[in-house]
Amino acid sequence: MLFIKCPYCGIRSQNEFAYGGDATVKRPELNKEISDKEWDDFVYNRKSPRGKHLEFWHHISGCRQWFKVHRDTATHEIFKTLKPHEEL
Amino acid sequence: MQKYSVFNLIKNAFSSHENWEVAWKDPTPKKSYDVIIIGGGGHGLATAYYLAKEHNITNVAIIEKGWIGGGNVGRNTTIIRSNFMHDANGRFNEFSMDLWRNMSQELNFNVMFSPRGIINLAHSDAQMNAYARRGNSMRLNGIDAVLLNRKQVKKLIPMADFSEDVRFPIFGGLMQPSAGTARHDAVAWGYARQADSMGVDIIQNCEVIGFDVIGGKIKGVRTSKGDIKANKIGLCVAGSTSILAEKLNMTLPIETHLLQACVSEPIKPLLDHVVTFGAGHFYCSQSDKGEMVMGGDLDGYNSYAQRGNLPTLQHVLTEGIAMFPFLSKLKMLRTWGGIMDMSMDGSPIIDKTHIEGLYLNCGWCYGGFKSTPASGWTFAHTIAQDKVHKLNADYSLNRFSKGYLLDEKGLGTKTWIS
Question: Which CATH number goes with the domain that contains A50?
């Protein structure tokens, strides 16, 4: 069981959350010339590291806020949770 | 190679079975090979076998970080099927079915292929319509499919919950009678033994640390047992694909996720089909030892842990009990996890790469076992001929950027939603 600290509600069990994927992926700027490769990287390509991973989670059965989790994909250890606008 | 037969069994009984040849050797790696396959799982072993058998390329090494049969080929729930709607998936997996049917004879190893049939349950009229469509697509591709009504399903699996007042009543189902199961370890061992006998070196406990790429061409691998040269290298490492891709400066349309499975205590023969729950993600079959073999959803977050958490297991088994109420009375014997190379459209990738001589076989999601023989066969063809076979032409790496996705389940790029 993962225990995740929602930045708004505190520590809750994994059951209350939904996963939202890699939080380092940035949508390309709209008013810029975008290459197919950049779109490809945004939509499909993922680093999927073994180790530290910054990811989105959604407190779907709680406050319903989105936030970021810095977590180890090999040990499941959670280092830090952040509000969505905060950087590591 | 010593043939496995009843006569050899009797002969060896006289010497207390102490003189059997080893099934495969434990060689020290040579300085160079024609082809190196990274990953000694089912797909890697099958690739080496078909390289030797179909293409006469025997100067081949399989490099395996752990031991053969210790990864997903020994962790899956052994289901074999080709009940796909899309042509590319149907053709590929039906070719796989053909190889399964003859595998025990071909490998001289009993893989216990048991075509007991798979039933996908439907729980609404809409789902029955969707299954009718899928069944028709399957039949157009020469795959057997039977649409069953509620009464017909009840006759086949009377132990399922057929009450009227349940949340997800059984409306019927789609059955592929020729689908089934096989002994997964035997598949790894059978391919390993035959590949070894044809000259393939199976090098276990040997981790790939890096690659030698010169001028856009692959030249060899650096491993924990030294550098090994080869002009052709095939990557066949399932959940570890992204780790090796990073060493090659490649970012792939893949995420590694965790999938759990479990078996109950053994009980007397009860279930002689593979059955899947249609209102969630749960599947069940009974092993020859009598255990109920069960699995379902991914844990739902990126993971390389090979072990899962309880909430997902609880969720999956809740679905199981909704389908088969008797499961609640069984004790759980074992649970375990494996790591899946989840591709962004749910279909695999078997292709060349931008690096000359480097070939990629990945993206099997949680359905790689059934495709083991076809994957090995087509990957061997792709490596040997340096071009894709028409069976794996649609499993290209650039289908994502080109827009030719093969999204069998229509889930899109959120691979953890299943």
Answer: 3.30.2270.10
**Chain B residue with minimal CA distance to A19?**
B301
Burial B282-319 (b: 16+ CB within 10 A, else e): bbbbbbeeebbbbbbbbbbbbbbbbebbebbbebbbeb
Global confidence as pTM: 0.96
Q: Do A44 and B413 touch (CB under 8 A)?
A: yes
Q: Please indicate if any CB of chain A lies within 8 Å of the CB of B255.
A: yes
Q: Residue A75: its chain B contacts at CB < 8 A?
A: 305
Residue A87 lies in a domain: no
Q: Structural domain of residue A65, as residue ranges? A: 3-26+36-82
Of the two residues B328 and A32, the one the predictor is more confident about is B328
Using a CB–CB cutoff of 8 Å, tell me whether B416 touches chain A.
yes
A64 inside 8 A of chain B by CB:
no
Q: Which of A49, A29, A69, A39 is nearest to B241 (CA)?
A: A49
Q: Which residue has the tokens 């953890």?
A: B416
Give the model's pLDDT for residue B13: 96
Pairing outcome for strands A18-22 and A52-58: antiparallel
State how many domains chain A has. Answer: 1
Tens of pLDDT, residue by residue over B206-253, are 999 999 999 999 999 999 999 999 999 999 999 999 999 999 999 999
The answer to whether residue A76 is domain-embedded is: yes
Nearest chain B residue to A73, by CA = B303
**Do B413 and A49 lie within an 8 Å CB cutoff?**
no
**CB neighbours (10 Å) of residue B234?**
28
Q: What is the pLDDT of residue B418?
A: 63
DSSP-based three-state secondary structure for B166: coil
> B400 and A43 in contact by Cβ < 8 A?
yes
- Using DSSP bridges, classify how beta strands B332-343 and B254-264 pair: parallel, antiparallel or unpaired: antiparallel
| pLDDT reading at B151 higher than 90 | yes
Radius of gyration of chain A (CA): 14
Q: How close is the nearest chain B Cα to the Cα of A55, in Å?
A: 9
Note whether A27 contacts B: Cβ–Cβ < 8 A. Answer: no
Distance from CA of A70 to the nearest CA of B (A): 12
What distances in angstroms separate CA B254 from CA A40, B86, B302, one per listed residue? 12, 21, 11
Nearest-CA distance from B417 to chain A in Å? 9
Mutation choice for A interface testing from B301, B306, B309 by most A CBs within 10 A: B301
The pLDDT of residue B410 is 81
CB pairs under 8 A between A and B: 73
Model confidence band, residue B332 (pLDDT cutoffs 50, 70, 90): very high
Residue A88 falls within a domain, yes or no? no
Residue A53 falls inside a structural domain: yes
The whole-angstrom separation of Cα B367 and Cα B30 is 34
Q: Provide, as residue numbers in chain B, all residues whose Cβ is less than 8 Å from the Cβ of A40.
A: 400-401
